[in-house]
Write a structure and sequence with these properties.
The complex is a heterodimer of chains A (about 575) and B (about 375). By secondary structure, chain A is mostly beta strands. Chain A is built from six helices and 37 strands. The relative contact order of chain A is 0.16. Chain B is an all-alpha fold and about 375 residues long. Among the domains of chain B are: about 100 residues, Serine Threonine Protein Phosphatase 5, Tetratricopeptide repeat (Alpha Horseshoe), CATH 1.25.40.10; about 100 residues, Serine Threonine Protein Phosphatase 5, Tetratricopeptide repeat. Chain B is built from 19 helices and no strands. Chain B starts with 19 loop residues before the first helix and ends in a 12-residue tail after the last helix. The chains are: A mainly beta (about 575), B mainly alpha (about 375).
């Protein structure tokens, strides 16, 4: 990040320190710096620092006259610390050049550096350097998504990159380079892969890999839309058959075995987004899949090592009126601080993003209208997003990359737009309000938003984001929100559990109530976010109690944890 | 152009009055002629028919077949001569009037063709294509309305008559285009022309253009009834609820009890979660259309939104009664049963929803596993 930012952060933190000292002395009992405990409302502000930090990325979607569906899908981004220097780095997936027309069975290949995936390493001064070639991450094929996970528990994050026609697993060599171990690991997969998630499905301490696939698709020249000049459009997924996901079990020896059928996670779908959480609190991680234009899937992890798709009975397969929708991005997070993971799935304009509140009995209630999201999102098309607390007030807000999938949508629906500004929705504790207009000029810029990853890039306690756009730049957004609120970031290190602690649950207890989070790098769309768990503490200068349930089953309790720190937590032996 | 059905019909003829040996000879000649016709050897076929006529002169069946063959060769005058001879011998001989009409149609003598087709239609068993050809002749002589009447009768007699539908569509389209051209000549900025173009665009789902035309019409005639409703529908189709609602409210002033206007307003109000308003509109709509499934479905949503699950249940059951094939009411009913703490009924409704959803997709010809997507 820039020097300006550094000095601003320092000044604001000094101010905060003074305020904290005053309040801490008077409110030692509850560890909060407000007598009422009310969370403060702050004006959000995000700045586009893409150029100033040295990230210059352009997505190659390769739009053709044939309107191949793949052109409009965009690509993902990962925020992760690849060299364990304590600073987040950025990995961005790229497409490839397409011929026009393309042969029906074509597997597009990258034609040169302009098509490469890119790894940007963050220097100590907050700027980034492109180290793609040195790291060996240029990639192959028409890339789609990325999933970050330390599959061999060696303490270094590995990368799984999805694509059309074959995926790649890159093992982190612990020397700032990666090795393509795809074939050795047996995780190439075929077809059109999209989002993937690292998750320990059987709690054996090793991360398994769930890879969504979108459609049974090839470069057939199919005309969709009206037969008028300019009206040809991308085909809807209805034209194509669904396809099963791939589930790779980590055998622990560098090899994986495909087990989707064996564990019952083989429903043909049109998967674009994946998120994980133990929604029914039975101690086993569950998987939710955002399907495009067909019912959404919720795979319930049963006691017998198998999964059962229960989306319809759980109430998340369709919207509140019984209509299915174009599910794209997804997050599985507790937005109402009741200790239960809720679901949000983004979709196309006129469908409204689908918010499902966890009822606590294995079912969900459709809360799009009552939460205010219906009115906010009716004319928008959402893709990558995360629940994240931008102002550290203790409520998870929303940052959503937006833009329609049809580049000529305005011809047929004049009130809709292909390029749309991002959406920042503040969680007031009673619902969501659109605060985009107040959040900086970047929220007035129309993009064809697709991927999005969230993480505290500058480790200042305020969550930042990276957004990818279709046939456009990637953007680095720095969270400059001036807030007196406190925060806490936990980096969980598993020992019996998988080292990333993916699937661990963290419950934070403050005088105002609880907050709940699941450790994951998945969620959003095609993207992978910072695995660290971030909590806004409001006026609390310490977290009185933190409960961690590790995937191994170990329960850990931390008490009186000071705020405003990045805290490493190791999994205890028992 | 035409038409060899005549030769497939073995009608009674003078043939039967011939001695057996002559009958056999004529029968042989007719078989040979038919075979030659099939292979396109028309000259030889014609000679064979002429030979048959020497054995059985003025036989209407032979004359008819010969006439049809000549018609095929576009020798309309000769064919008419032979058809006339056949009719002179047997005035109601099967299908001869039809084929003679076709020959006159080929000569573009439409009025005589029409007379012949009408004579054929007066027979006990007219040729199945006769009415269609009568319509073509009427159309060609400029009697468009009469042609449409005949085509309507043709499709009523044979609902799978694609040719008749095609002609019917062409006639209506042409009539429409001609009327539009005349309107343009009269006044290119007339209310009528803009309203008509609005309807045309709306029919083609070009709603932005439709709205523009409707608004131009309204500018010409601000009190014109129905235009606000049409604009509202176009906005509604584009999911522009606010604009649609505003137009429907103006339409409501024209006719407060109009079921469709009230239905649209109710639908918008449900989308806006304004359940009290929605219920009010939908009750009016229900008065006019008590059996309309969509009204009961929306009323069900209204009551559910107002936390009245029993009323919601009644309305959703009414919706299912009105349209047992629709999946959506079952989903909403499942939710309502959930609220009524009846998990068994809820599960049953969900299963029904699942089943009907799949059937709806199959019916819509969509790929399995897919469902609705707005674009």
């Amino acid at each position: 990040m820039t020097e300006t930012r550094k000095s601003y952060s320092f000044a604001s933190k000094c101010g905060l320190l003074f305020v904290c000292l005053v309040w801490v002395t008077s409110l030692m009992t509850y560890g909060q710096d407000s007598a009422s405990g009310q969370m403060s409302s702050t004006i959000p502000h995000f700045s586009d620092v893409t150029s100033s930090v040295g990230v210059h990325f352009e997505n190659i979607a390769s739009h053709t006259s044939r309107k191949y569906l793949i052109e409009t899908m965009g690509s993902g981004v990962a925020l992760f610390d690849y060299d364990n220097d304590g600073r987040l780095d950025i990995f961005i997936v790229n497409g490839a050049s397409l011929s026009d027309p393309a042969p029906q069975r074509a597997i597009p290949q990258k034609s040169g550096p302009s098509d490469w995936n890119r790894l940007y390493h963050q220097r100590p001064d907050g700027t980034f350097e492109d180290i793609t070639e040195k790291a060996g991450l240029q990639g192959e094929g028409y890339g789609m998504g990325v999933a970050v996970g330390d599959y061999d528990n060696d303490g270094y994050e590995d990368l799984y990159v999805t694509a059309f026609g074959g995926n790649k697993l890159y093992h982190n060599n612990r020397n700032r380079t990666f090795t393509d171990v795809t074939d050795r690991a047996g995780v190439r997969g075929m077809g059109w892969s999209t989002s993937a998630a690292w998750v320990d499905l059987d709690n054996d301490g090793l991360l398994d890999l769930v890879v969504l696939r979108y459609l049974d698709w090839n470069f057939d020249d199919i005309w969709c839309g009206e037969h008028r000049e300019g009206y040809r459009s991308y085909c809807t997924p209805d034209v194509f058959h669904p396809i099963t996901p791939l589930v790779f079990h980590n055998d622990g020896n560098g090899h994986f075995t495909e087990i989707s059928h064996n564990i019952g996670m083989d429903e043909p779908g049109k998967g674009l987004g994946i998120a994980i959480a133990d929604y029914d609190r039975d101690g086993r991680i569950d998987i939710c899949v955002a399907n495009d234009s067909m019912p959404e899937f919720l795979y319930h992890n049963q006691a017998n090592g198998r999964f059962k798709e229960v989306g319809l009975s759980a109430g998340i397969a369709v919207d509140g009126e019984g209509h299915s929708f174009a599910g794209m991005g997804i997050d599985f997070s507790d937005y109402n601080n009741d200790g239960l993971p809720d679901l949000l799935i983004t979709d196309l304009a006129d469908q409204m993003y689908a918010l499902y509140r966890n009822n606590g009995d294995g079912t969900f209630a459709y809360e799009t209208y009552s939460s205010g999201l219906g009115r906010i999102t009716r004319t928008h098309s959402g893709w990558g997003f995360r629940f994240f607390d931008y102002d550290n007030d203790g409520y998870k807000d929303l940052l959503i990359a937006q833009g329609h999938d049809l580049d000529n949508i305005q011809l047929t629906f004049p009130n809709l737009r292909y390029r749309e500004p991002m959406l920042l929705a503040r969680n007031t504790g009673h619902g969501f309000v659109d605060v985009s207009k107040d959040a900086g000029s970047i929220f007035a810029e129309p993009w064809v938003g697709r991927g999005l990853a969230v993480g505290d890039i500058d480790n200042d306690g305020r969550l930042d984001a990276v957004i990818t756009t279709n046939e456009g730049p990637a953007y680095v957004l720095r969270n400059d929100t001036a807030t007196p609120n406190h925060w806490l970031t936990l980096e969980l290190i598993g020992h019996k559990s998988n080292r990333d602690a993916i699937g661990a649950e963290v419950k934070l207890v403050t005088p105002q109530g609880i907050q709940f989070a699941t450790v994951t790098t998945a969620a959003s769309y095609l993207s992978s976010s910072d695995k660290r768990v971030h909590f806004g503490l409001g006026r609390n200068v310490m977290a009185p109690r933190i409960e961690i349930r590790w995937p191994s089953g170990v329960h850990q309790i931390l008490e009186n944890v000071k705020s405003d720190q990045n805290l490493r937590v190791d999994e205890p032996a028992n | 152009m035409i038409l060899r059905r005549g030769r497939q019909i073995l009608a009674l003829s003078l043939f039967s009055l011939l001695p057996a040996s002559a009958q056999t000879q004529v029968s042989l000649l007719l078989d040979q002629a038919r075979a030659r016709e099939k292979s396109g050897e028309y000259v030889v076929a014609e000679q064979l028919y002429q030979q048959a006529l020497t054995i059985s002169p003025d036989d209407p069946e032979i004359l008819k077949r010969l006439g049809v063959l000549e018609q095929t060769e576009l020798k309309f005058d000769q064919s008419i001569k032979h058809f006339r001879r056949a009719l002179a011998r047997s005035p109601k001989y099967s299908e001869v009037s039809f084929f003679m009409g076709v020959s006159y149609f080929g000569k573009q003598d439409f009025s005589t063709a029409i007379e012949n087709f009408q004579q054929e239609l007066a027979t006990e068993k007219p040729h199945p294509r006769c009415r269609y050809y009568l319509a073509l002749a009427l159309r060609s002589s400029g009697r468009i309305d009469d042609a449409i009447v005949q085509l309507d009768k043709a499709v009523a007699e044979n609902p799978k008559d694609a040719d008749a539908y095609y002609e019917l569509a062409r006639l209506h389209t042409n009539a429409s285009l001609q009327a539009i051209e005349k309107l343009k000549e009269l006044d290119p900025e007339s209310f009528q022309l803009h309203a008509l173009m609005g309807e045309t665009y709306a029919g083609e789902k070009q709603y932005a253009d439709a709205i523009s035309e409707y608004k131009s019409a309204l500018a010409k005639r601000p009190d014109a009834p129905g235009i606000h409703f049409s604009i509202g529908v176009a906005y509604w189709a584009q999911h522009e609820w606010e604009s649609a609602g505003s137009e429907f409210l103006q339409a409501l002033q024209e006719n407060p009890d109009d079921p469709m206007t009230n239905l649209y307003l109710g639908d918008i109000a449900v989308h806006e979660q304004q359940f009290e308003d929605a219920c009010r509109y939908l009750r009016v709509a229900e008065t006019g259309q008590p059996k309309m499934a969509q009204i009961h479905l929306l009323l069900g949503e209204c009551y559910r939104g107002q936390k009245q699950p029993e009323n919601a249940r009644s309305e959703l059951l009414a919706a299912i009664d009105a349209d047992p094939t629709a999946a959506q009411p079952h989903y909403l009913l499942a939710q309502v049963y959930g609220e009524l703490h009846n998990p068994e009924a809820s599960a049953q409704e969900l299963a029904q929803f699942d089943k009907l959803s799949k059937l709806e997709l199959e019916k819509a010809g969509r790929v399995p596993g897919s469902s609705e997507r707005h674009k």
